[in-house]
Each structure stands twice: as structure tokens, then as C-alpha cells.
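Q: Hi! First time doing this. I have a protein sequence and I read that you can turn it into a structure. Is that right? Here it is:
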Amino acid sequence: MSSRVKQLAEREAMLQQRCAAQRASIAHEVANIEGRFERIDRLVSVARNTLLHPAVIVGGIIALLTIRRARGMRFIGRVYMLTRAVRRLVRTARVFQGLVMKPSPVSEEPLPGDPLRGEPL
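A: Yes, that's right. Below is the predicted 3D structure, encoded as C-alpha cells:
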């Protein structure tokens, strides 16, 4: 084997070891993150099962029927308007966030044929 082939084989082995170490590190981080979100997943599951339980649904309907109709409808209307306002606010914030210009890396010397900064095209 030539020295170049040996160097390439050594480099390949080194890169494979590095990849294996990175895979192990990533697997450890993913396990860490999954452990953190496991608690939240359990809470969401309990909340979903509780809210979708027939007794809770029937109780909500009975509560809405016992509250005066106009008062209940006014409350529902306010909640609806509040959710629409929050959605619009979030959408507007995303638009403004997209409008913020990010600094771009500029080379110190312009390429030949490119106009200098501040010069008309």
C-alpha cells in the first residue's frame, strides 16, 4: 500500500470514530430532551382525556344552559374576539420580525465590475 492510501484509510477511520462519538452525543441529548418533555406529554394527555370525558362535556353544556342565554353568548363572543385579536397580534409580530434586516457579511474589497457602496447603479 502506498503512503497516500494509508493516510486516507487512517483519515477515514478517524472520521468514522468522530461520527460515532457525535452520534452517541446526539443520542444522549435527544434522550435528555425526551425526558424533559415526558412530564409535559403526561400533563397534556391527562388534560385531553379529562376534557374529552363525556361527563365533562355534559357538565359544560348544562353550565351553559343554566347561565342566562344572553350572558353566556356575550361571554362566548368576548372570548372569540379575544382569540381573534391575539391571533392577529401574533401574525403582525411575525410579519415585523420578518421585516427586520439581518446584517449580511460584506467583503472589504468589491469584486471587479461591482458598484461601490453609495454609488448609483
